[in-house]
Amino acid sequence: MKQDELFNKAQSTNFFGKLFYYTRLSGPGWIQAAVTLGGGTLVGALYLGVVGGYQFLWLQPLAMLCGVIMLSAISYVTLSKDKIEERPFELAKRHISPTLAWGWLIATIIANVVFCTAQFALGADAIQGNLGGAHISPFLITSILFIVAFFLIWLFSGEGKASRIIDNVIKALVAIIVLAFMGVVITLMWNGAINWGELFSGLIPDFSALFRPTDAYTPSIAAAGEYGAFWKNYISESQRNIIIGAFGSAVGINMTFLLPYSLMKKGWKKKHRELSIFDLALGLFIPFILGASALIISTASQFHAKKDGIVSEAAYHQVLDARLKVEHIEFATYDKNKVAQLRQGAPQADKDLSTMLAKRNANDLANALSPFLGNWSQLIFGIGILAMALSTMLVHMMMNGYAISEAFGQPGQRKIFLIGAVIPAIAGFFSPLLWNGAAKTALAVPASVIATTLLPIAYLIFLLLMNSKKALGEELPKNRLLVNILMFGATGIATFASIWALLGKYQSTNVYDHQFGIVGLIGLPILALIGIISFLRKEAS
Asked: Which residues constitute the domain of residue 274?
């Protein structure tokens, strides 16, 4: 049955019938879920569970709610226009500011290339660490991922049935991710390994918890004596970094650029506005909340404030060494024997806190859950994480194809789209070199600062477009008071998260973090001011 027939049937049936047909028609929301359920969400959820336990279960639903509010506005603007010449990028250039519009596009390209590299690395880790491929060359793995991803993107760039295949592939991959991690939580529930009281209290927002360690650390911090203040600051700073990461991985700046083109690719128009909101709820909000929450619950149950949790030696030493550097100013100059001696002689309270706070990866969590899942533990996590990596790299490639096409003023031109799509995949192929050590820092730090700084700017663009008589004309929302309250709230939260993250960079002792923090703190208000002044002038002209 064709899309128009399904849509017409949905309009002539009851509520549950409409849900049935809308589910069959959905698509763009699932693509959004594929990019947000990637490596950033995995790392963020794992460490959020380690540091905060169940206490921050409310955080990612709030972040995603803000994202869905803004994506709904993006959807409204896109579907209010029938001509390709009136796509959001062009509207932003004409009615807001060319500077903001191009900043939005460039930040999208940078985020796509850098974080697609991370997805290739994540896929290789899943195959080598969870799926028994430890002896397979990482370049062989990235080569296979490159071929598979590019083939699927090539199908997507075509027309007809071939272009719809990727919709179903992405839906399947998102379903695999959610089912894999939800299955883990169900197993933990069955075995009584979840503290239900703490879990339910973690669903209630507690903003004071953003700035202090959880109560579970209090005895250990007290036992650390004179270094208790160090541990309190260490935990608070770790929480801040991971909270910002959680916000950033919920809805990234490149996702705001992707949605209009996903909607146009589906051929949706004004009449599909209600469908687009349902699509975001079904395809994005629900899978993200289920997947991310399952990871936090699993990690919290096994690692939060536990002195005997499974941890890699390198991750444990990274935390312990941070504490020893406070006591021994020249720690970095000591030889291996001296360092080993100091580690061995560290107070037990410091060793315990180092175990509690060490970062875990999916392999650590799979090992910790083996008493509950048996030999299936590594397989479940391996499949879930590989699905995460593949679905997210596909969408990063897709987004970059749209962005490069837009940069050349030829949206929909297949050859340019494919050239743009292959750029992140090339970087991903070289991920064994690029996503490692100093090269990883050189890529990730500026990219994360640029994306963090410009996410509120992307939100500002659509907040202004939703209030632009010149851009929307008669399509201006009728109940703009409620719309603006919701959008101002979402933009305000994103701005707070951005400034908080940039302040953390500015206060860092790392010279690169510090410099990028300065650039972000100066650039964010300047860009916002440029956009608002330009918008007011254009509306008044």
From this structure: 3-310+360-443
